[in-house]
Amino acid sequence: MPRPALKIPQELMEIADLSEPQVPSVTITFMEPGEAGQCSSTHPFLREGGKEVTFAFRQKPLGIHLSRDTVPPVITEVGEGYEAKSFGVERGMRVKAVNGTSVMDMKTDDILDMLADSCRLLPNSLLKPPSMSLSFKELNQKEEFTFAFYCCPCGLHLAEFKGSAIVTRVDGSYEGAYLGVKEGMQVTAINHADVAGLKYSEVLQRIKDSSQNLQFAGKRP
User: SUPFAM superfamilies this protein is in (predicted)?
Assistant: First the structure.
């Protein structure tokens, strides 16, 4: 005999109809600057009473820049058009936790590595992130190579040689090494503007200024 059809209660069908597929997300808890009052006993530079806010990010890059000289790191810049800006993340906020794990006593580089790992499954934002273009050529060679940097630190160490900025070391696992910048290369242009005639200090300053809007990122795997 055929089995009777299974009847599903209407309320269960409605719940099923309303269900949505799981979307990858990264939750980050921030602390707003505290009001004037007692300093925290564990982190003396923080004021008690700072409000905590948690946001679920569903796109990368996140659009936040972190300081490297404070623990926990402070937000120094929030990129226009990114989720962080739409959530209301502001300069001066501090990162407290990532996916529920406290980062209060972690170094900024370790936090960036954690964020990079957590964001791997997030889809890329349709918004093109800020970039910095650097052009190089090897000494005594005519061929020029141009690379677009989207993250900092770039992992490049420069020194002056006969008035030019020369790459003396390329740290592995950072964007410079990933793109193929090599020791001994000479910086020839920044954002497609020739640096011929500029002093070494001026070249460094232009690179520093151009990298201000890049996203901070940890080491690549």
Answer: PDZ domain-like
Concatenated DSSP letters of 12-72: HHHHHHH-------EEEEEEPPPPSSPBPSSSTTSBTTPPEEEEEE-SBS--EEE-SSSSS
The predicted-structure confidence for 75-131, as pLDDT tens digits, reads as follows 888 887 788 888 888 889 989 999 999 998 888 888 888 988 888 888 887 666 678
Picking from 71, 121, 59, 116, the residue whose alpha carbon sits closest to that of residue 96 is: 71
Amino acid 170: pLDDT:
92
Sign of the CA dihedral running 185, 191, 192, 198: negative
Phi and psi at residue 63, to the nearest 5°: 90, 25
In terms of C-beta density within 10 A (0-12 exposed, 13-18 middle, 19 or more buried), how is residue 100 classed? exposed
